[in-house]
Specification:
With about 200 residues, this protein is an alpha+beta fold. It has five helices and nine strands; from the N terminus they run ααβββββαααββββ. A hairpin with a 2-residue loop joins β6 and β7. The relative contact order is 0.25.
């Protein structure tokens, strides 16, 4: 079942926890890829120094202020796109960054998008657990780019779906890969899962 818009129109921290175990699906022209969400980070409001809204509303971060349930896809460090689910009420900036997935479908397509091989061993396939570990790897493996920015996550081609009860224990800790707001334990992950970032 595709998660409805109302799922996202709640406190960002609650949405972050509830996204663990849900399935991100991209039905692209290349094929279908899907993965269970196992790691996320919450970014909440203009008072959060790590949130893109910390300096106020701009053309770039406008999706954060929009209706909940839409994708906020942005380009970072001139290298990668990252994908977030917009949360809270319209007009208040909040989002959940999808940091890692457990690949479920489309493994071969994910590997092609990731470049097939690991740097250390030529011709070695990327292990399943590493295909979508880290937010940049999520977007590369899933084929998510700027064209999906502002698109609703409750309508194809990019959706988040409920695959049934979650199994496993949630853990919370500081967000990683940022220089501000590291005091907030707003990173949530499935404890012990091999696809979770090593941070």
């Amino acid at each position: 079942m595709i998660l409805p818009r109302s799922f996202y129109g709640r406190a960002t921290i609650e949405v972050a926890a509830d996204l663990i175990g849900k399935v991100l699906i991209h039905r692209s022209d290349d094929g279908l890829t899907a993965g269970a969400i196992v790691e996320v980070e919450a970014y909440v409001g203009e008072d959060d120094p790590a949130c893109h809204a910390a300096s106020g509303r701009t053309a770039r971060n406008a999706p954060l202020y929009g209706a909940p349930g839409h994708a906020y896809v942005y380009f970072t460090y001139g290298l990668h796109h990252l994908v977030n689910a917009v949360t809270e009420r319209e007009g208040f900036p909040g989002a959940v960054l999808i940091r890692a997935l457990e690949p479920l479908e489309g493994h071969a397509l994910m590997r092609r998008r990731r470049g097939h091989v690991r740097a250390r061993r030529a011709k070695a396939l990327v292990p399943d657990a590493q295909l979508c570990r880290g937010p940049a790897n999520v977007t590369v493996a899933m084929g998510i780019g700027a064209a999906l920015n502002r698109r609703p996550l409750f309508r194809r081609p990019l959706t988040i779906e409920d695959a049934g009860p979650r199994t496993g224990v949630l853990a919370w800790g500081p967000r990683i890969g940022i220089s501000k707001g590291t005091d907030k334990d707003w990173r949530c992950w499935l404890r012990g899962h091999p696809s979770v970032s090593r941070g």
